[in-house]
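Morning. Coffee machine broken again, so started the prediction first thing and wrote up yesterday's gels while waiting. Chain of 77 residues, entered below exactly as on the submission form.
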Amino acid sequence: MDKRRKPAFRFTAAADVALLKEVIVLEPYSAPHGEINKRWQTIVKNVGELYSAEAARKRFASILAEFKSENADQIRS
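Came back before lunch.
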């Protein structure tokens, strides 16, 4: 049995943009109770299943927090 690990996925600017576009379209936080995780799974499926729904959710939260911080000017450029 081959026990090699999958290579780690590193978010790129293109992956971030694809993730943000899907979040805008599917609006996971406007889903009814119990459906939020299904929306995140759909988002991951739509962007190519390179990472998990939990990773997508954490990355989105990280992007949002960075955008709201004092580094927002750097991100926008």
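The two ends are 47 Å apart (CA to CA). Going to sketch it on the whiteboard this afternoon.
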